[in-house]
Amino acid sequence: MSAVEANPYAGNRRYHDDYPEMGSGPVSTEPYYSEAYFQLEKEYLFKKVWLNAGRVEALQTPGDFIVKDLPVCDTSVIVVRAPNGGLNAFHNMCSHRGNKIAYDPDGHNPSFYCRFHGWTYDLDGNLQDVPDEENYFDLDKSCLGLTPVHVDEWGGFIFVNVDPNPAETLQEYMGELGAGLADYPFAETSGQVFTFETVVNANWKLVKDAFQETCHTPYQHNRSLPDAYINEANPHTRLIDMQVHGYHARASLFGNVEHQPSPVASRAYGYGSTIAGASMVDGEEVAPALAPPLVNPTGSAEWSFELSVFFPSFFVAVTNGSYFTHQFIPIAVDKTHWFSTTCYPAPKTAAERFSQEYSRVMFRDIMLEDGRQIEETQSMIKSGAKNEFILKDEELFIRQGLWQADQMIEKYRGAP
Ligand code: FES
Ligand SMILES: [Fe+2]
To answer: Helix count (H) and strand count (E) of the chain?
Structure first.
């Protein structure tokens, strides 16, 4: 066997060959700035699919609620723990004159009270009380509850779907990738959670694309991550493996097992999982994190983490001992609300807490490098100087996301 054949990162494997329907040529930049296309995405994509709204840990007891603002769906949704222990979701809009019921992003209420004129709803959305009720005309409170939204959970993640009649259940929507990842110990690894959020002046797909390829790592992150994800055999941070699963996609990311962390990072690595760790696949026993079939499915010893891209804009990246998520919620064609959340087990010692803090700050610094590039790219995209992006093989997920959006818009636009 030649040296080239022995190196899995130097061959010329073509992932695109598995998806001929997506083509391999340049892709148009128009979906990244077209107001008309953005309107199609709103109506026939975001208003049709299941969107992550949070985690169940935030909703422990009846009355605990979270609010998910979804400007791309022209709404805001309340998700609340119901008296029967299930989940209820409602449009965050009063039946009287449309005021938002919940202004705060989360909280606990025995009932929902509209502060405009005091209409009150129970946790199942029923209208309970109307002040000065006799001054209205033929008021039938039984028909004036909050408007429900479909809600379900997968792996402890809460999803909502604003379509009054979703075409698929959440389990159907998550499909093969959801089934292959669901056994990751998300609950145990959600004891310490940090969220960063910001508004990026860029199209949601441009934000998303920055996180669904690793080939920018040696360049954009050459200061923050000089050798964590490259080595002599893999100088371009090629992936271990990537695959499309229905609407969604996943990739196994390479890590350099010879990575030399700084002295402080070494201390942090000793007490927990960090974003820039080398291979997490050591030891004889299969850790719970590695048990799900779609986590490191090739069994590579150089695996660092598994990136699962749930269409349209929810990423779950798991490793051994921590995971992080990204979500990109469009606000306008060139404005995106970006949420990044890093999650760890509840720390048992101060050393573990230090390790998590180090990891979270390191993660933030890397994300800032990405954020800068995204806005710079958006600032040029309408110039007309370039009307196409040129994609390499490992930029397959960018092509797949664009292709999948077109497919979905076509499907629902044509639906009766
Ligand atoms: S709008 Fe809610 S009570 Fe009037
Ligand atoms: Fe990056």
So the answer is: 8, 19
